[in-house]
Design a protein that fits this description.
The protein has 436 residues and is an alpha/beta fold. It is built from 16 helices and 15 strands. The strands form three sheets. The chain has a seven-stranded mixed sheet with strand order 4-10-9-8-7-5-6, sandwiched between helices. A four-stranded mixed sheet has the order 1-2-3-13. Helix 10 links the parallel strand 7 and strand 8. It is globular, with a radius of gyration of 21 Å. The relative contact order is 0.16. The structure holds pyridoxal-5'-phosphate. Pyridoxal-5'-phosphate binds next to helix 5.
Length: 436
């Protein structure tokens, strides 16, 4: 391996100084495992970063990317098309919640969020309701890192350094309620009424000023928060009552994570717009997308036919490599039945996870499908440090997890076997006991 000073690379969402003192390097990946440059095996407890749902190094995907690079490296997406972009949209619509039958491509989850927010605003304007300019997010929400996303997002560290953000944004309450719901298996019983907070904002701003509400069906980056039973249904009803669009950000829940292709299907609630990324290409090539209902798309399709209908898009929208990777990814998911496999594995996963109850500092465990959150009590004056120490201990033991605040998040590849689940939980138990 070539050497470098580690100096020039400013790493994203990383404690740069600490990392560069003791780097955690990954060099290879196959199936459920990474390997370090020294050849040490590391079990992947988080599908890379909620991306690699089919496991690493899947041959069909590798081949599709290599062949596409040789056949056609790039095609401009503005006023031009290529067959795989259309074929992929057809395949995506087949597995999407019914009614979400239009697909707009982006290159990441953050871009998908910006795109969905812009579609929502432009849709209302195109229909003659241009007063609907407000966007509503939720406290503790994560919608990527661009300005729209951090404006509707609700994680203070992601917002406080960046000025006034978008104007006209408000937030409904988050759904974390450990007093009533701690150690719930699956959806918590209490808190459907928290959706009524949207009525408070409607009363404050008037529905005629509100364009859309965006939520993650299961919030991931804020520490794995599940929707209380009936909550998403209630949100849907309130949006319908007031003509507000409902956007589900499925960047982490999409592509089988909760036991159905999308969380909208798991929870039986269909949004008007839905953002995806990550699992769309199994993490192999950057790609995101927004699904839209027919009526939203159709509202744009007026005026002279030679005019562009929606002034938005990216140079790399529908990139040929990304489309080839996504098509091969969907095939791989179908070959292995991965889009519903979390349903088969969730009982074992749930039991294993909840066996950690009673270990020191474990104050809550939350899970659905193949997503798990283990919340630890914060050390006094050092928020996030206890979980980070568990992360470091796991890394030393050969397990990659993720932490956010003092919550450990698990989202393993959907190819996981029972013995991997047991290994993850045993390693975590050792780490949690060792890290006081
Ligand atoms: C719900 C949600 N939305 C958006 C994003 C942003 O995606 P990206 O990092 O690809 O921009 C993420 C990333 O974790 C996410 O979890």
């Amino acid at each position: 391996m070539s050497t470098s000073s580690l100096d020039a690379y400013w790493m994203p969402f990383t404690a740069n100084r600490l990392f560069k003192k003791a780097p955690r390097m990954l060099a290879r990946a196959e199936g459920m495992y990474y390997r370090t440059p020294e050849g040490r095996e590391v079990l992947d407890g988080v599908a890379g970063l909620w991306c690699v749902n089919a496991g690493h190094g899947r041959p069909k995907i590798v081949k599709a990317i290599a062949e596409q690079a040789a056949e056609m490296d790039f095609a401009p997406p503005f006023q031009m098309g290529h067959p795989k972009a259309f074929e992929l949209a057809d395949r995506l619509v087949e597995i999407a919640p019914k009614g979400l039958n239009k697909v707009f491509y982006t290159n990441s989850g953050s871009e998908a969020v910006e795109t969905a927010l812009k579609i929502a605003l432009a849709y209302h304007r195109a229909r003659g309701e241009g007063s609907r300019t407000r966007l509503i997010g939720r406290e503790r929400g994560y919608h990527g890192v661009n300005f729209g996303g951090i404006s509707v997002g609700g994680i203070v560290a992601n917002r406080k350094m960046f000025g006034t953000l978008l104007t006209g944004v408000d937030h409904i309450r988050h759904t974390h309620d450990p007093a009533r719901n701690s150690f719930s298996v699956g959806q918590p019983a209490h808190g459907a009424d928290l959706a009524d907070d949207l009525e408070r904002l409607v009363a404050l701003h008037d529905a005629s000023t509100i364009a859309a509400v965006i939520v993650e069906p299961v919030a991931g980056s804020t520490g794995v928060l599940l929707p209380p039973q009936g909550y998403l249904q209630r949100l849907r009803e309130i949006c319908d009552k007031h003509g507000i669009l409902l956007i589900f950000d499925e960047v982490i829940t999409g592509f089988g994570r909760t036991g159905q292709p999308f969380a909208a299907q798991t929870f039986g609630v269909t949004p008007d717009l839905m953002t995806v990324a990550k699992g769309l290409t199994n993490g192999c090539v950057p790609m995101g997308a927004v699904f839209a209902k027919q009526a939203i798309h159709d509202a744009f399709m007026n005026g002279p036919e030679h005019l562009i209908e929606f002034f938005h898009g990216y140079t790399y929208s529908a990139h040929p490599l990304a489309c080839a990777a996504a098509l091969a990814t969907l095939e791989t998911y179908a070959d292995d039945g991965l889009l519903t496999r979390a349903t088969d594995m969730q009982d074992h996963f749930s039991q294993a996870l909840h066996s950690l109850k009673g270990l020191p500092h474990v104050i809550d465990i939350r899970n659905i499908g193949l997503v798990g959150g283990i919340e630890l009590a914060a050390r006094s004056g050092e928020p996030g440090k206890r979980a980070f120490d568990v992360f470091l201990d796991c890394w030393e033991q050969g397990l990659m997890i993720r932490t956010t605040g003092d919550t450990i998040a698990l989202s393993p590849p959907l190819i996981i076997q029972a013995e991997h689940i047991d290994k993850i939980v045993d390693t975590l138990a050792t780490a949690i006991k060792r890290v006081a």
